[in-house]
């Protein structure tokens, strides 16, 4: 008998920021579709319905609809964002249904459940947060927690609803965050299913990607020596102001390394002048990280980017921009898998640290990659988690 699992992809941004919403969801949708495919592959009785808010001009969902998978997409107009978000929130709060929730990583969860109220007057404080071995500095907490209009309260309310879910599916690698997962797994919380890394390695080309440009980028990398290039990319929404762009260009020049830089806005004329790199628009990030010419990644630390870099064992220099990215960056540094970007002339030095063939961070990232690949290949932890999830959900119907 077939079972249909419903997944909704609802943006959390303000409906008025239309461009933001469009960009926001491209990354989210990709990992959701990948997860849906894994459910399909694991158990042929499973069909997945993905509910997503339609955005403008993108053929992304249309392209997926063409795929012969047992995934059904329902696209809803923009004006449905609020009612759909409310409906989903209500479903999540109904204990009797078989709903579960999809998260990127345990630290995010722990934070939502356990984060003490931040002191807006003293942002130097450190917090003991479940899932973190060491106290977490206020400055890496998402800024909306400090929002005077009740950011923290809204966050906690939202988090409490997750407690009512039947399960929490997390896109993390069990072996990457064993401490956080252990802290979080107890009788008071719903069961946790760490199913990651859920990344799209052979997905459809993103509609933002210019295929001619893609070929140029890959050809350029093909001509570079092994591990010689630094790749810079700041996610689907990441862009910098012209003065910052100039500063980054200068720092790159000082680092002495070649680079590939994904800039989603046209660079100021002289930004990359005199440097030894290539500037492109939307980058084929997964392909780039998988290329052996790439030795380091300056990243905004979006969760997909982190998983992709670990999968290809490319160490990160963290450059978080907003929301949970600071916390992701902090976690990566704590785990010894990234180096923090310094904000002065030493920028060159943090880049050099990840590019150094014998560096500690490089060795640790390589170990993590091996762990992640081994887990997947042996039908290991993510495979078992998906199996447990399906069993628990179908058992609950
Ligand atoms: N991405 C890409 N090319 C770009 C920018 C982003 O392919 O120029 C992809 C990247 O591989 C990742 C996703 O877009 O899969 C971004 O997701 P992430 O969670 O890292 O950041 P967000 O965009 O949500 O801030």
UniProtKB/TrEMBL annotation:
Gene3D superfamilies: Glycogen Phosphorylase B (3.40.50.2000)
Leader sequence segment: none
Entry GO MF terms: UDP-glucosyltransferase activity
Keyword Iron included in the entry's annotation: no
UniProt-listed InterPro entries: UDP-glycosyltransf_plant (IPR050481), UDP_glucos_trans (IPR002213), UDP_glycos_trans_CS (IPR035595)
Keyword Transferase among record annotations: yes
Pfam families the UniProt entry points to: UDPGT
Keyword annotations of the record: Glycosyltransferase, Transferase
SUPFAM superfamilies: UDP-Glycosyltransferase/glycogen phosphorylase
Family: Belongs to the UDP-glycosyltransferase family.
The name this protein goes by in its record: Uncharacterized protein
Provenance organism: Gossypium tomentosum (Hawaiian cotton)
